[in-house]
Design goal:
GO terms for molecular function: heme binding; iron ion binding; monooxygenase activity; oxidoreductase activity, acting on paired donors, with incorporation or reduction of molecular oxygen. InterPro entries: Cyt_P450, Cyt_P450_CS, Cyt_P450_E_grp-I, Cyt_P450_sf. Belongs to the cytochrome P450 family. The chain is an alpha+beta fold. The chain folds into 2 domains: about 1-135, Cytochrome P450 (Cytochrome p450, Orthogonal Bundle); about 135-195, no CATH class. The protein has 4 helices and 10 strands; from the N terminus they run H-H-E-E-E-E-H-H-E-E-E-E-E-E. It has helices at about 1-10, 25-40, 70-75, 120-135, and strands at about 50, 55, 60, 65, 140, 155, 160, 165-175, 180-185, 190-195. Strand 2 (about 55) and strand 3 form a beta hairpin. The longest helix has 18 residues, at about 120-135.
Length: about 200
């Protein structure tokens, strides 16, 4: 978060992040991509049907078989990603790999005719939301917890969630007030406290 915060301070100063700022925020964009690589919101993409029998990697796929694409596993494949389980946004800096369905090693929104119709909106909103939250709040974990102590295991379903609740504290401070926001990403409860 520190690198994102520094990039925002350097590129947009105290201004509110705008869509026109996004091309000037490569590290922020890389963080969004790396998050989607490790934790795609839909781990299994929409199923496909084999229109003909074929062979893929020595497996015979009979005609009319239902095929599920596991975006979660693809994003963690060591044949495509160095240190696949490590959160390393730098892997996307100076890289043409994107999530628009052209790079099959990174398809959190799918590919082809069944690509997620919300991709253009998500591609614009996710970095703007992250930019706003990072730029205007100091982030911390409760009770002296360090990032290395977080349980980052996933709970599988139609959508991907964290297995253990994540509680973060966002602190906004100016000359007049302090605002603490506690967000529980498991229950989606938000607690606000002014001091």
């Amino acid at each position: 978060m520190k690198k994102v915060h520094e990039e925002l301070a350097r590129e947009i100063s105290d201004n509110l992040p705008k869509a026109s700022d996004l091309p000037h925020l490569p590290y922020l964009q890389a963080c969004v991509k790396e998050t989607l690589r490790l934790h795609p919101s839909a781990p299994l993409l929409l199923p496909r049907r084999a229109s003909v029998s074929c062979e893929v990697m020595n497996y015979t796929i009979p005609k009319d078989s239902q095929i599920w694409v596991n975006a979660w596993a693809i994003g963690r494949d060591p044949m495509n990603w160095e240190d696949p389980l490590v959160f390393k946004p730098e892997r996307f800096l100076n890289s043409a790999v994107d999530f628009k369905g052209n790079n099959l090693e990174f398809i959190p929104f799918g590919a082809g005719r069944r690509i997620c119709p919300g991709l253009p909106m998500a591609a614009r909103l996710l970095p703007l939301i992250l930019a706003s939250l990072t730029h205007f709040f100091d982030w911390s974990l409760p009770n002296g917890t360090t990032p290395d102590e977080l349980d980052m295991n996933d709970k599988f379903g139609v959508t991907l969630q964290k297995e253990q609740p994540l509680l973060i504290i966002l602190k906004f401070e100016n000359d007049q007030e302090k605002l603490f926001i506690f967000i529980d990403f498991h229950t989606y409860n938000i607690y606000v406290s002014c001091c």
